[in-house]
Amino acid sequence: MRIDVLTLFPDMFASPLGFSIVKRAQDRQLVNIVLSNIRDFAKNSYKKVDDKPYGGGAGMVLMCQPVFDCIENVQKQDENPGRVILLTPGGKKFDQKLAQDFANEKRLILIAGHYEGFDERIRIGTNAEEVSIGDYVLSGGELAAMVIIDAVVRLLPGALGDDDSAACDSFSDGLLEYPHYTRPEVFRDMKVPDVLLSGNHKDIENWRKQQSLEKTKQQRPDLLK
Length: 225
Ligand code: SAM
Hints:
With 225 residues, the protein is α/β, with parallel strands linked by helices. The chain has helices at residues 14-17, 20-27, 64-75, 96-103, 120-126, 142-153, 164-168, 194-197, 201-219; strands at 2-7, 32-37, 50-51, 61-62, 83-93, 107-112, 129-132, 186-187, 190-191.
């Protein structure tokens, strides 16, 4: 898989992409993450990529030209033009289902905005899908892109040590995951449930299913609808 990120702050990605599962997936060549700096495509001498909004109002708006040129530049680097995603607070809410959908793609192009956001013609002219990571406003799309990359990359076959662990994760079957325990058997008078020590796989499986349902009912009843 190839993931392009178009951003004004490529340096922000070094640490989140440089550790753990996402790093390992890149080392194993399961994913190629390519960062492009939108500012490199500014045509003016000040490398300006934003301007005042028509009609007045606060803040600055990302201009069409550098963003279009940046998209076209990355698209011509690969025969697959990719699924183009504009990160916006008003977009479709990112969830595990969309993460799986993205993980099935060969190429994603994530465009991180800044300031007041994008000139509307960027959305119209690129036909990009708008995606939000939640109902709150971040200063820029970089953190949103990192969240999406992390959630998608761990779903790529071979990214996790044990492929089954993604299939059991919360949301993958519409429910929250059952609780986990590890050594010791007793910690501050809190004991590991007997069933997990029983060695009876059928009973353990049933207990986990029931716990998963119970936890979802209590914490996220909306998921059961
Ligand atoms: N004025 C915009 C609004 O009210 O919808 C907010 C712009 S925000 C300060 C700057 C950029 O951060 C956006 O263009 C977008 O790329 C990114 N961003 C902010 N919140 C986001 C969210 N919840 N999901 C995805 N991207 C977000």
